Amino acid sequence: MIELVYTDKDIVVCIKPAGVKSTDEPGGVPELVREALGDPQANVRTVHRLDQVVSGLMVLARNAKSASALSRQIREDEFGKAYLAVVHGELPDGGTMRDLLLRNKAERKTYVVQEPAKDVQEAVLDYRCLGQADGLSLAHIILRTGRTHQIRCQFSSRGFPLVGDRKYSLLEDGCPIALWSARLSFTHPKTGEPMTFFRRPPQAAPWVQFDSYAENAKNGENND
Fold first, then answer.
1. 38 is a domain residue
2. Per-residue pLDDT tens for 171-200?
3. Residue span of the structural domain in which 95 resides
4. Which of 21, 119, 150, 155 gets the most CB atoms within 10 Å of its CB?
5. Do 154 and 100 meet the contact criterion of CB atoms below 8 Å apart?
6. Which residues pair with 12 in a beta bridge?
7. DSSP assignment string, 111-132
């Protein structure tokens, strides 16, 4: 059963479980939302995605107008997304990561490249290190672009692979990937009301080591 954080006639905000696809297919988030709503025929539409292994907040539209309005906000950079990640290493205090990324569809993996080319896209994110413990760092991340595996690839390319990442790290951590969609901010597609949702990561390793720092992400430390 998926957890519904907020619902009305136009949108649903939920907690996407790890291992579940964001898209509308058997076992995907929209199907789980319909089950939670008790209506297998409900109109539920994905407007943004999380990697299958990633968990945390997602908003879905419940009609075509809401889907169009939310998609426009995403295109026009009016839709705020903040993530928390635990990475290996002592992360600098903060900054901007800007790279050119190439997606290898055959390998289902993203790479940092040095030169512009066909299918190469710019990727930008801002981050702030919220705390460090036992050789790990907690990062608060604001995505400026939404490339596939962007956070995982950009941090790994700088020597800070995410804890639990089996695709971009050679380390065996014995836990799920430590990447959490912590905060969403957008304008309600019908009422125009500003809406913000925040959820702390689960009380499990490696998040529990940073429990005292996680609350700092609630108010948007990177001024998104």
1. no
2. 989 899 999 999 999 999 999 999 999 999
3. 87-179+204-224
4. 155
5. no
6. 7, 60
7. EEESS--TTEEEEEEEEEEEEE
Q: Per the domain annotation, does 199 fall within a domain?
A: no
Q: Considering its fold, how many domains does the chain have in total?
A: 1
Among 177, 182, 175, 113, smallest CA distance to 143 is for 182
- CATH number of the domain that residue 219 is part of: 3.30.2350.10
- The pTM assigned to this predicted structure is 0.92
DSSP secondary structure of 19-87: T--SSSSTTSHHHHHHHHHT-TT---EE-S---TT-EEEEEEESSHHHHHHHHHHHHTT--EEEEEEEE
Nearest-angstrom CA–CA distance, 85 and 161? 10
Cα separations in angstroms, 171 against 51, 75, 105, 205: 20, 36, 23, 15
Each residue's pLDDT tens digit, 73-110: 999 989 999 999 999 999 999 999 999 999 999 999 99
Instruction: Say if 139 falls within a structural domain.
Output: yes
